[in-house]
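Backbone geometry tokens:
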Amino acid sequence: MRLLPFLFLACVATAQTREGFLNVPGGPVWYRISGEGKGTPILALHGGPGGTSCSFLALDAFTRDRRVIVYDQLGSGRSGRPTDPSLWQVDRFIEELHTLRKKLGLRRVHLLGHSWGASLAAAYVLSKGANGLASLTLASPLLSTPDWIRDAAALKQQLPAAVQATLRKHESDGTTNDPAYREAEAEYTRRFVRRSAPAPPNPACAESIRNSAIYERMWGPTEFHATGSLQSFDLTPRLAELRLPVLLITGEFDEARPETAARYQKLIPGARFEVIPGAAHALFADNPARTLQVLADFFRSLDPKATGKP
């Protein structure tokens, strides 16, 4: 594990932003709290597994009237990097989130998860209950690996025949690290993961690095080839137990297909569903304006003390 300070007292960066480290099961995690105001805070869970909270920079637009809390899950970003593979389990990530909420005194929040973060958010509610949660947003959600793989298979049929053949060959041969396979994978990424051009590097994220080892252990070598511990992950039999305001969001071209999210909406009592036009999986990069407006409208409907403006 790389050395990091085990801090419980946040480092004050500005009057409206504080960040630091706190201990959770397995090691220290980095967090940041930005903003002020009377609105119910937003607690955001990033994707991956092994991703970083830098994907949520757009949420700073909400800090004018509410706090926004982000953190890098253990093992990735600026958080501690233990090497014990037994840590990379859904239940431990649930306990990590629960510990963070308690230590930061987050008694009432809007819980928002993107991709794997949505998996974690939904699993957290089903494990710990909805007490203190004003709402649950499941953005581009992975709620069922079998559904995800079926959707991926359908999306791969839209790729050029030569690209499909390359993917099949290397997956069959177990050579998914071959450059030809990675080039073919990139075509899938351009269509269904992120359609916008890469943003210029943000200095605030210079030390926030993904951890591919966690991704590969829990998921697999690519977005559409699951070989890890999440192979059997499936919350669909329990979605009806989500008894709180729920918003589902997916991109028009999302690998978390709108058709599947619409089916999830029917399983969750009273859930709302929005499709972000022009976006793939990277909602906050492909169409940030519309994504933020959808969130703002949802929060405003539940939170009369805040303007809800992004």
